[in-house]
Every structure is written in C-alpha cells, then in structure tokens.
Amino acid sequence: MPRVPGLRSNYALVCRLVYFGRMLDKIRLHAAGRLPADYQKNLGIGFDARCCEFLGVDYAALKARVLAGGSEAEIAAWCHERGGARSDDQCNGFNRFLMKLGWRDDRTPVLRQRIAEFGLTGRPIETFFDLNEFDEDRDPVGTRAWELRPPVVVLVMGVAGTGKSTVGEALASALSWEFRDADSFHPAANIAKMAAGQPLDDHDREPWLAAIRDHIGVTLKRGESAIVSCSALKERYRQALGGNAAGIAWVYLHGSPELIRERLAGRAGHFMKPGMLDSQLAALEPPQFGLSLDVSEPPDALIGRIRAHLAL
Q: Among residues 95, 153, 203, 253, which one has the fewest Cβ atoms lying within 10 Å of its Cβ?
C-alpha cells in the first residue's frame, strides 16, 4: 500500500510513546476524509486499543479530545490527567512490548498470514510494526527503526548543479524518509524572478527561508526525520534555518566550477540558468560545520559517506 501523506511511522516516538502520534494522525485524517478505507476498519481496535488501554483512556473520548484541537503534548497531558501519569520506565516497557508484537508470541501465526496476504513474503518481517512499515514502503530493518533515534532533518546544501536534489532524493529513498527540495518553498514571485535570469536578494529570500524553517520545526515536532535540499549559501541563511541546533545536520556539496557548469548546461526545464552560477559562487560562504563532500564522487558514494557520518 502506498504511504499515506500525513500518517507517521509506527516507530515515530511522540510524547515518549511509539505509535501514539500515528494514532492521532489516523483520527485527524479520518475526520478530514483523507484516511484510506483499509485503515478505517481498524480505528479504535488493534494498536489503537492497546495504546488507549496503556494510557487508561477510552478511545471515543480520546477521539473527541483530538478533534477538539491542541498539540500532541497537550493531548498526552490530557491522557495522563484522565488515566494517570506514566513513568519513563512504564513507557519504555510499553514501547518494547508494542514493537515486538508478533515476534515469537501467540500472534506469530497471524503475522505470517498477513505477510502472505500483503504480498510481502521474503521481506525480513518479524513484527507487526515491521509489517506495517514495509507495507507503506518504509524499510525499518535497513534503518534499524527500533533503535528509536531522535529525529533529524538533514539539510543538503550547495550551489546549483552540485546534485543536492539527486543526493537528497536518493538518501531519502534509502532511509524511507520524506524529501523536500527547497525550490518547492519559493513563492511564485521568486520563481518568476529566477526564471527571468534575475538573482534573488535577501528580501526575496525571507519568506522562503521562513517556510523551510517552519517545515523543519513541524517535522521534528512530529518526531519524524526528513531530508531537505537547500542552497543556503550564506551563514546568515543557515542560521535562519536553525544553524547547528540539535536535530539539524548539514551536508555541504561542492565541486569545481567547471564540473558544475557542465552539469547545469545539461539540465533542461529548470529555472536556474548556467549563467547564474557565478553569482552563487561569489555569494557562497562555505559552512564551518557539518559534512563537506566533493561531488566528483558518484551519488552512491556520497550517500554512503553521509550515512556513515550520521550513523544512519
């Protein structure tokens, strides 16, 4: 089944609990008419029921509270007020239980049946969490999702033509993370200006940087990891995006002007023209933090270096 936009991974750790954020997503998506029918039949049962049982709250009451609005933290606080506070040890124990459901227990035969029904025979699936992840085109085994690492947004930066999108998309695919190209955050006026061969000024960049920073903040708050490609040529732009703050990792792609010009000349249908490279190179302030990579290496090698550097 294709991944559902707005539906978090089972492994996303939200308010100390796995699955909790996903359960809230399902409630909101269903109310908005955006939850596929195959998911609707399990609302309030299965993992939803187990999570509510652990929290000591009724699913119907939780649903009403979620639809009333509020952040995940506020909803979690409501759960603790209704069902009693849960210690870190209790949350950790519940997480381990939920993540291992289907592994060498009474549910294993059902898991094996579901694997066959979903057409996932041959995949390294040992738990129901893994089943759901593979079914939504995520690879929890390759990324060791059960380690519950803190979320991170990897910002792949550099001038046009360094392969930010190519590397970012390939890295996101390898990690089963979301990828966004910074170009998608530009307002229409900026795109029209660049298409006309006019470089952007800092006034033009303000709403663009703010939109990217908001995306980073929302992603981390949801307990998710992601990849964003962004030129981020100057230090003040990088600081506007969060700088070297926790949860943000930088990858700086660079190469010889000759190689980059050759790549730009071979691109069709992009608003960034080869003649604009000189202005970007003149504006570039190489970062003093993060991982620096020469793009003369093939993308697979670059991705390997990034994963090794970030232990992904």
A: 203
| Cβ(129)–Cβ(109) below 8 Å | no
Report d(CA 6, CA 174) in Å as an integer. Answer: 20
CA atoms of 72 and 30, how far apart (whole Å): 17
Q: What is the pTM of this model?
A: 0.82
> Which backbone phi and psi does 139 adopt, to 5 degrees?
-115, 95
Q: In what order do the strands lie in the sheet with 226-229?
A: 178-181, 226-229, 153-157, 248-254, 291-294
User: Can you tell me the distance from the alpha carbon of 258 to that of 165, in angstroms, rounded to the nearest whole number?
Assistant: 19
Contacts of residue 307, Cβ cutoff 8 Å, sequence gap at least 6: 171, 174, 175
What b/e sequence results for 12-50 when a residue is b if at least 16 CB atoms lie within 10 Å of its CB, and e otherwise? bbbbebbbbbbbbbbbebbeeeebeeeeeeebbeebbeb
35 Cβ contact partners less than 8 Å away, ≥ 6 residues apart:
4, 7, 26, 29
At 146 the pLDDT is 93
Q: Which of 8, 13, 244, 22 is nearest to 150 (CA)?
A: 13
- Cβ neighbors of 104 (< 8 A, separation 6 or more) are none
Taking domain 153-310, whether its CATH number is 3.40.50.300 is answered by: yes
Alpha carbon 55 to its chain centroid, in Å, reads: 27
User: For 116-138, what is the mean pLDDT?
Assistant: 96
Query: Length of the chain in residues, anyone?
Result: 312
Structure tokens at 90: 């209790």
Would you say the C-alpha torsion 180, 183, 187, 188 has a positive or negative sign?
Answer: negative
The tens digit of pLDDT for each residue in 250-263 reads 999 999 998 988 88
Rg, the chain, Cα only:
22
Kindly report, as residue ranges, where domains of CATH 3.40.50.300 are found in the chain.
153-310
